[in-house]
Design brief:
Elements (H helix, E strand, L loop, with lengths): L4 E6 L6 H12 L3 E3 H11 L2 H12 L5 H12 L7 E5 L5 H11 L6 E6 L2 H10 E4 L5 E3 L3 H5 L9 E2 L6 H15 L1 H8 L3 E5 L4 H14 L4
Parallel strand pairs: 1-3, 1-4, 2-3, 4-8
Antiparallel strand pairs: 5-6, 5-7
Helix pairs in contact: 1-10, 2-3, 4-5, 6-8
This protein binds adenosine monophosphate.
C-alpha cells in the first residue's frame, strides 16, 4: 500500500487553504480535514460540542488543543483517511503539532505547504468571503451565489461567517501570528516546508502546490 500522504496547509485565514484543499482532495482522492468546518458543523447542528465552542468561534479565538486533537484523532479513524489527509486549520499551535506527530507515529507529516499572502489582501478576501452553510463551498460577495445567497452546488444558504466580521478577522490574524506562525520554524527544522505564493489565481496556486508534491516524490 502507498504510504499515507499527510499534507499540512499553513497560511493566514483567507490565504486560500480551503479552496486549495477542495481541489487537491478531488485530484489525489485524499480527504480534506478542516477542523474549522468540523467545529462550525457542530455549532450549526447545536450538538454539545457546538454549544461548548460557539462563543469561542464567534470571537475568533482558538478552542483548546485537547479538544481539536481529539476531533482530529476521531477523523483519522474514519476509513477514507487511510490514504492520508489534507490538513486545513490544524495544527494551529505547537502543542497541536507535537500531538499530531505522536498521533501519526511512524507515518509522519509528508509536507507542509505555506500559502503566503500579504495581510491586507487576506483582510480584503475575508471581508468579501461568503460560504455555503450546508456544503462549505466558498464564494465571494459579488459572485452570483454570494449575491443571491443560494449555493450553486447544493442549494444551501450562502452566508457571511460570524468570524469574517472586522473585529473577529483582527483577532484571528493576531492568533495566527502568535500561535500558528511559529509552526513554520517547527516544520522548517524538519525540512518539510515549501512556500507557495498565494497571491495568484486559484489555478496557478494549485499548479505550484502540485509541483511541490511531485518534486518531493509524494504523488
Ligand atoms: P478556520 O475555519 O480554520 O478559520 O477555523 C474557524 C475557527 O475554528 C477558528 O477561529 C477557531 O476558533 C476554531 N478552530 C479551527 N481549527 C482550530 C484549531 N486547530 N485549534 C483551535 N481552534 C481552531
Amino acid at each position: 500500500m502507498a504510504p499515507r500522504l499527510i499534507v499540512v496547509l499553513l497560511g493566514k485565514q483567507g490565504a486560500g487553504k480551503g479552496t486549495q484543499c477542495a481541489s487537491l482532495s478531488q485530484r489525489y482522492n485524499i480527504p480534506h480535514v478542516s477542523t474549522g468546518d468540523i467545529l462550525r458543523a457542530a455549532v450549526r447542528e447545536g450538538t454539545p460540542l457546538g454549544q461548548q465552542v460557539k462563543s469561542v468561534l464567534d470571537a475568533g479565538e482558538l478552542v483548546s488543543d485537547d479538544l481539536v486533537v481529539a476531533l482530529v484523532k476521531e477523523r483519522f479513524a474514519q476509513a477514507d483517511a487511510a490514504t492520508g489527509a489534507l490538513l486545513d486549520g490544524f495544527p494551529r499551535t505547537l502543542g497541536q503539532a507535537t500531538a499530531l506527530d505522536v498521533m501519526l507515529g511512524d507515518e509522519p507529516v509528508s509536507i507542509c505547504i505555506n500559502l503566503d499572502v500579504p495581510t491586507p489582501l487576506v483582510v480584503e478576501r475575508l471581508s468579501k468571503r461568503r460560504v455555503c452553510q450546508e456544503c462549505g463551498a466558498i464564494y465571494r460577495a459579488d459572485d452570483p451565489a454570494g449575491a443571491s445567497g443560494t449555493c450553486e452546488k447544493c442549494g444551501g444558504d450562502v452566508i457571511q461567517r460570524a468570524d469574517d466580521q472586522p473585529e473577529a478577522i483582527r483577532q484571528r490574524l493576531d492568533a495566527y501570528e502568535r500561535d500558528t506562525a511559529p509552526l513554520l520554524d517547527y516544520y522548517s527544522q524538519k525540512n518539510l516546508v515549501v512556500t507557495v505564493n498565494g497571491d495568484q489565481s486559484v489555478e496557478a496556486v494549485g499548479a505550484d502546490v502540485a509541483r511541490a508534491l511531485s518534486d518531493r516524490g509524494l504523488v
